[in-house]
Amino acid sequence: MARGGITKKSVEQARNALIARGESVSIDAVRIELGNTGSKTTIHRYLKELETDDDKTALSASLSDELIALVNQLSSRLKAEANQTLEAQEERHSEQVNAWQERFEQQSQELLATQTHVEELMQTLQQAEQHQQQLREINHQLEVENERLQSDLSSQKQRLSEKDDRIASLEEKHTQAREALNHYRDSVREQREHEQRRYERDVQGLQSEVAELEQTLTARQHSYSELTQRNTQLETQLAELKRHYDAVYQESRSSEARLSELKQQYDRLEARFAGVTSELQGAHDKQESLQTSLTELTKEKQALKHESVQLNAVIETQKAMIEQWFNTKTPQKPRPS
């Protein structure tokens, strides 16, 4: 029977102290660590329970859930059966001790009455000593076996610890690689979306500029048609007045030549515009070249506009000179009196 103050916690503390000092854990060593208190049966039972708890903790790190459940079930069953057996042994031991105490008291009383039972008591004592010696030998063998099992258990624990460290390192590397891959995917997706938005904005800007250019060209074609009609009229008038206005006629011919040149430039501009429009519709990868072409076209349009303004000014000047000449050469009708 356990004496007062002996608990599983105190046995565990004593065992841990022996392990920390590098000493072998045995029932006698634990009992000495506890101050020679507690029965060996109780200490042995607590040590077995602690070993079972350690084995369960070591196995739970590597076994599957189903196998752990089975091991826990078997461990609980073995523990229950072992507790029942230990309790039965303790109960029998208590009964034997009580019986021995009663017998001892009876023998003591008989010893006081007679000295004839002394030899029988000595023989019983010798038998008890022999039985105790046998128990000590068995206990020593159990301690040797326990030390061997403790050594094997320590080796298994060390290997399991190394395996756990390796698994943790591999899991950490896997996590880092997965985070790096996710970061790379997010970066590529954001860059692709940014490029797509910039491409759409560039295309929309180019389409807007092309539309504005088409409108401008349409207006220039209309202006050119008007200029052609006006130039035809001027040519007719200049043909009639050629003999009198050679200088004016030469200027008109120069203007006509310039107008023809502007027309050719306009045709080339229109052809280039058609080519640029076709390239814009057929291939988006030539956006930079198209942007350059559009810029050049814009500059040429501005130059053409400037030259058209100058030509209009020349034509207006010639028209004013012709009208002035007609006014000076045409006889005025007499006013009615």
UniProtKB/TrEMBL annotation:
* Annotated KfrA N-terminal DNA-binding domain residues: 7-116
In this chain, the stretch annotated as Disordered covers 177-205
Which InterPro entries does the UniProt entry name for this protein? KfrA_DNA-bd_N
Gene Ontology molecular function, alphabetical: DNA binding
One matching Pfam family is KfrA_N
Q: Does the keyword DNA-binding apply?
A: yes
Q: Which organism is it from?
A: Idiomarina aquatica
Which key words are in the record?
A: DNA-binding
Please list the residue ranges that the record marks as compositionally biased, kind Basic and acidic residues.
177-203
Q: What is this protein called?
A: Plasmid replication DNA-binding protein KfrA
